[in-house]
From TrEMBL:
<dbReference type="InterPro" id="IPR024314">
    <property type="entry name" value="SUFU_C"/>
</dbReference>
<feature type="domain" description="Suppressor of fused-like">
    <location>
        <begin position="66"/>
        <end position="242"/>
    </location>
</feature>
<keyword id="KW-0007">Acetylation</keyword>
<dbReference type="InterPro" id="IPR007768">
    <property type="entry name" value="Suppressor_of_fused"/>
</dbReference>
<dbReference type="GO" id="GO:0005634">
    <property type="term" value="C:nucleus"/>
</dbReference>
<dbReference type="GO" id="GO:0005829">
    <property type="term" value="C:cytosol"/>
</dbReference>
<feature type="region of interest" description="Disordered">
    <location>
        <begin position="326"/>
        <end position="353"/>
    </location>
</feature>
<dbReference type="GO" id="GO:0005929">
    <property type="term" value="C:cilium"/>
</dbReference>
<keyword id="KW-0539">Nucleus</keyword>
<dbReference type="InterPro" id="IPR037181">
    <property type="entry name" value="SUFU_N"/>
</dbReference>
<comment type="similarity">
    <text>Belongs to the SUFU family.</text>
</comment>
<dbReference type="Pfam" id="PF05076">
    <property type="entry name" value="SUFU"/>
</dbReference>
<dbReference type="InterPro" id="IPR020941">
    <property type="entry name" value="SUFU-like_domain"/>
</dbReference>
<protein>
    <recommendedName>
        <fullName>Suppressor of fused homolog</fullName>
    </recommendedName>
</protein>
<keyword id="KW-1017">Isopeptide bond</keyword>
<dbReference type="GO" id="GO:0000122">
    <property type="term" value="P:negative regulation of transcription by RNA polymerase II"/>
</dbReference>
<keyword id="KW-0217">Developmental protein</keyword>
Length: 487
């Protein structure tokens, strides 16, 4: 549970003040944690006239067993910048993803030279509506949701990352249903006694803009949003009442900027958390003499710690040198009676403790498979053309990591270093991790055959694609198949 209080930040706000705000300002610093004090100092630099902002606070702190990792979310009124066409807005700042205390109660203290905690705090800029006298508090819960993802998965955010949320951010009927992340335009990195803290701003976007970021890259779409005042402008302010995408506002942006960027640069998205599975069709289902992946109705074997580390690096850095760290899209919890994929728990993450050391690494051998069957839900299947066009045709890879277990499917192109699939043996498995090597010629053919995946609303599930001579089958299945452990 969270509480909203106007006086919640008063002591810390005083502590963060570089100049006097009454006789008490000099007596507070020793009473408040240095990490908290450092962030408040940066907030006070921007908002010296708002020493005591309205604040949402976690009633039961995370280190005491509470559900919300952020101790506080402060909310400021920003007058904008009329000269730059920046409107008045509410500015939200989180406290808790960085190390506030330095005593290992939440984050391990690793010194002053590196990142503090996860190394960043979140911010959000929401356009102020006419007549609005107080900031809405829903962005605080949104930030808590993102923070829970970070704590549970230990995947950190980077500028340019995108988050697939699948629900209006404010639970309204808004088209703003997903997020990009970028550097906050006003807040500067802070050096605290526990390390450096940077500030990443959440930017609300429409589904079409998210898809463009996935197919190309987040930074490119952020730059386009900055050029369209009603879609964010230079400070990327989210307007939940925005009814048009940037491509509807300026149709030339899609063809002249995005399509050209995809063709030239490919996609920076190297992996996603997904509903997926795979079957080895080379052997009968009852043959379980080794650590073959996914036997229907049985407990899949776990990845070793070394395998887990390699898949994590596949998603974070990629198998090739120049891959950018990318956040796997995540989804909101159940909201407004609608079902959404749950955010991955620590057990489901790539760094799952339950994945490590259950099977010794040396007992899991890499196996060449003759025939495989890939299974995806509709959302994951819709990313296959992106995987093929934006990644493999540019000499890169793409990984699907199951959100319900240790299963992983990595598509690789010819020449990707570190892959255990080869042109001679294009299907290879290491425990529940499958790699599939696709030649450029076969990728082009698949793109033609899978063209209807670009318009998934036009076909009914289940949908099956098959390439018998390649001994490959792909099925797009309803979500319920993956939600049922006996599928």
């Amino acid at each position: 549970m969270e509480g909203t209080r106007p006086g919640g930040a008063a002591p810390a706000g005083g502590a963060g003040s570089g100049s006097g705000s009454g006789s008490g300002s000099g007596s507070f610093p020793s009473l408040f944690p240095p990490g908290l004090h450092g962030i408040y100092g940066e907030c006070r630099r921007l908002y010296p006239e708002q020493p005591n902002p309205l604040q949402v606070t976690a009633i039961l702190k995370y280190w005491l067993g509470g559900p919300d990792p952020l101790d506080y979310v402060s909310m400021y009124r920003n007058i904008g910048n009329p000269a730059l066409n920046v409107p008045e807005h509410w500015h939200y700042v989180s406290f808790g993803l960085s190390d506030l205390y330095g005593d290992n109660r939440v984050h391990e203290f690793t010194g002053t030279d590196g990142p503090s905690g996860f190394g960043f705090e979140l911010t959000f800029r929401l356009k102020r509506e006419t007549g609005e006298s107080a900031p809405p508090t829903w962005p605080a819960e949104l930030m808590q949701g993102l923070a829970r993802y970070v704590f549970q998965s230990e995947n950190t955010f980077c500028s340019g990352d995108h988050v697939s949320w699948h629900s209006p951010l404010d639970n309204s009927e808004s088209r703003i249903q997903h997020m990009l992340l970028t550097e906050d335009p006003q807040m500067q990195p802070v050096q605290t006694p526990f390390g450096v803290v940077t500030f990443l701003q959440i930017v609300g976007v429409c589904t079409e803009e998210l898809h463009a970021a996935q197919q190309w890259n987040g930074q490119g779409i952020l730059e386009l949003l900055r050029t369209v005042p009603v879609a964010g402008g230079p400070w990327l302010i989210t307007d939940m009442r925005r009814g048009e995408t940037i491509f509807e506002i300026d149709p030339h942006l899609q063809q002249e900027r995005v399509d050209k960027g995809i063709e030239t640069d490919g996609s920076n998205l190297s992996g996603v958390s997904a509903k997926c599975a795979w079957d080895d069709l080379s052997r009968p289902p009852e043959d379980d003499e080794d650590s073959r992946s996914i036997c229907i109705g049985t407990q899949p074997r776990r990845l070793s710690g070394k395998d887990t580390e390699q898949i994590r690096e596949t998603l974070r850095r990629g198998l090739e040198i120049n891959s950018k760290p990318v956040l796997p899209p995540i989804n909101a919890q159940r909201q407004n009676g609608l079902n959404h994929d749950r955010a991955p728990s620590r057990k489901d993450s790539l760094e799952s403790e339950s994945s490590a050391a259950i099977i010794p690494h040396e007992l899991i051998r890499t196996r060449q498979l003759e025939s495989v069957h890939l299974k995806f839900n509709q959302e994951s299947g819709a990313l296959i053309p992106l995987c093929l066009r934006g990644r493999l045709l540019h000499g890169r890879h793409f990984t699907y990591k199951s959100i319900t277990g240790d299963t992983a499917i990595t598509f690789v192109s010819t020449g990707v270093e570190g892959a255990f699939a080869t042109e001679e043996h294009p299907y290879a498995a290491h425990g529940p991790w499958l790699q599939i090597l696709l030649t450029e010629e076969f990728v082009e053919r698949m793109l033609e055959d899978l063209e209807d995946l670009n318009s998934p609303e036009e076909f009914k599930l289940p949908k099956e694609y098959s390439w018998p001579e390649k001994k490959l089958k792909v099925s797009i299945l309803p979500d319920a198949v993956f939600d049922n452990p006996l599928h």
